[in-house]
Amino acid sequence: MRAYRPALRTGVLIGPPLLRGPRTVHLIKHPVSGAAFEVGPKEHFVISRLDGNRTLDDVVTAYADRFHRRLPEEQWTRLLGLLGTRGLLAGSPDPAPPEPPPARANTFWKGSRRTVADAHATAGRLHRLLRPLLHPWVQLPLVAAVLVMTGAVLADPPALLDGTRELLGRPLALVPFAVFLWISVCLHELAHGIAARHYGGTVTEIGLRWRFPALMMYCTVDNYLFLPGRRAKLVVAAAGAYANLLLLLPFAVWWVPLDPADPVRPLLTGMLFVGIVQALSNLVPLPPLDGYRILGHTLDTANLAPETRTYLALRRRGRDAVAAYPPRARRLYTSYAVTAAALVLLAAAGSVTAVVLLVLD
């Protein structure tokens, strides 16, 4: 037993440390069945060293150096048995696949339907087609152009109000632009999939989802949380909003040289403003928006909103109820609760103000 050199099976995915409630956890995922489960830092320390080269004695010694205690043999046996049962050790049989959730029948009011037979292959073809444009020397000027466009458009609030009013009053321009925004939303989803493929992610499904009267595309990335490094996850999460802003650049190129007195300029101003608001609204850190995922990756947290609600519910019972939470978790969940409430109030106030100005001015 002491000379045994256990190894994880090829393809097992191990995630980074994430704060979840009072605990720090790591996600581990089976490469075939897709089953995932959580382990604590000590279990992760051991599992991450099962490379087939280290003996159990080697891992026990490293464990003692790190945690100042030896790992009892019964815990070894229990951990290896668990990993073997879940099919995570080299040579162990695959576990039975988890039962899929019962499929909900599509209705007129809501539902979803796959539109691509092999989503991963489709995302791969799009990635190969666009790969030359993903080079940093191409992306850096595009990022700069997007930032300049956004700053230039938002720098003149009175013009934004006039432009929005002009756009709303021109149905022949508003309807095609609404179709453009819907296409932009579809490309937003595909951008997530292409970015995930760029970093080695697996795209499992591309389709259409409807919630009457809305119809939208969706793109599901299976191993998104296991992408290497924080940067990859941040890029994938922000790719959709970035794609929306890129699609506005042709309008900006047309808008910039126009004389302020040109009758077309207010209309383009309104289009750019509405498009920028649509893109940036996805970066608000509230679920289920992309900004919520970006914040979670930045803070290395899992289920930030649900865990915040759980923490607040416990906190109402007194300090003793949250004694298990480390100081960082207490600060983080309290700060997010305050921030989320402020964002909701700010969004409501901004929407009401915008409607009043557009209708009454």
From TrEMBL:
MF terms (GO), sorted A to Z: metallopeptidase activity
Hydrolase is among the record's keywords: yes
Cofactors named for this entry: Zn(2+)
Gene Ontology terms: biological process: proteolysis
Residue ranges crossing the lipid bilayer per the database entry: 137-155, 167-187, 234-255, 267-286, 336-360
Keywords: Hydrolase, Membrane, Metalloprotease, Protease, Transmembrane, Transmembrane helix, Zinc
UniProt cross-references to CDD domains, sorted A to Z: S2P-M50
PANTHER family: MEMBRANE-ASSOCIATED ZINC METALLOPROTEASE M50B (PTHR39188), STAGE IV SPORULATION PROTEIN FB (PTHR39188:SF3)
Family: Belongs to the peptidase M50B family.
Protein name: M50 family metallopeptidase
Originating organism: Streptomyces tagetis
Highest classification ranks of the organism: Bacteria, Bacillati, Actinomycetota, Actinomycetes, Kitasatosporales
